[in-house]
């Protein structure tokens, strides 16, 4: 578990369905006024609590950058980011790309998902909540998708079948996922102080101009802008994944 400088607490999960669990605000600490959401190839369930209200939404993958106004630094946000290959059976991920679906009814303790009432998850019991979704048959996974994106090869199904299964489970193509994960790795390296020319090489870009175009497309920022600290704006959660960006 880690707590970064902008008050976002995060931890990995032992669940094969979950990539990361995080929370921001309140216990984790204050956050800036804005968040720049870098393109993201995973979907997530997000819970917002503040000013006596609770909101729950399923957020899909994002193919481009967005800037969110976080408003006053009050309340708490909890997120469960799901692994590639995990999806809600009645809710195609393709319908969630670049959008979010809010629960039609929420209280401090429960919310409605796919017509059923569920206990609203907390940072401490997120894995228990996920296990309940799995047992109910609502959350399923296609292990082949996880393996293929990790760079494993398979001869059990045709390449076309692999493409269909990746698209069905993630809402994106393999190429789009690798592009997004590559740029997220590049942003992590830039944040560690690695020179742009070395970042381009290590992240698998053809050259530095290729890196620059990718940064602009998926983050809305240049390498220099990403390096500069901004007290009023924070980047969305970034972390290393198992996706083979060079495949």
Automatic annotation (TrEMBL):
GO molecular function: DNA-binding transcription factor activity; sequence-specific DNA binding
HTH araC/xylS-type domain sequence ranges: 157-229
InterPro entries per record: HTH_AraC (IPR018060)
Cross-referenced Pfam families: HTH_18
Name of the protein described by the UniProt record: AraC family transcriptional regulator
């Amino acid at each position: 578990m880690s707590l970064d400088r902008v008050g976002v607490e995060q931890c990995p999960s032992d669940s094969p369905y979950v990539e990361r669990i995080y929370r921001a605000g309140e216990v984790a600490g204050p956050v800036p006024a804005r968040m720049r959401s870098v393109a993201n190839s995973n979907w997530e369930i997000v819970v917002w609590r503040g000013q006596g209200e609770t909101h729950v939404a399923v957020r899909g993958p994002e193919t481009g950058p967005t800037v969110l106004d976080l408003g006053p630094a009050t309340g708490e946000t909890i997120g469960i980011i799901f692994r590639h290959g995990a999806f809600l059976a009645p809710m195609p991920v393709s319908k969630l790309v670049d959008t979010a679906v809010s629960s039609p009814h929420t209280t401090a303790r429960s919310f409605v998902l796919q017509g059923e009432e569920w206990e609203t998850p907390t940072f401490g019991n997120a894995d228990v909540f996920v296990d309940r979704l799995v047992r109910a048959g609502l959350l399923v996974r296609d292990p082949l998708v996880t393996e293929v994106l990790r760079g494993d090869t398979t001869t059990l199904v045709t390449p076309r079948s692999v493409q269909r299964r990746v698209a069905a489970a993630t809402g994106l193509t393999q190429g789009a996922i690798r592009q997004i994960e590559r740029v997220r790795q590049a942003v992590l390296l830039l944040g560690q102080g690695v020179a742009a020319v070395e970042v381009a090489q290590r992240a698998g870009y053809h050259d530095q101009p290729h890196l620059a175009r990718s940064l602009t497309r998926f983050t809305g920022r240049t390498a220099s802008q990403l390096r500069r600290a901004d007290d009023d704006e924070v980047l969305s959660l970034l972390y290393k994944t198992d996706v083979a960006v060079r495949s």
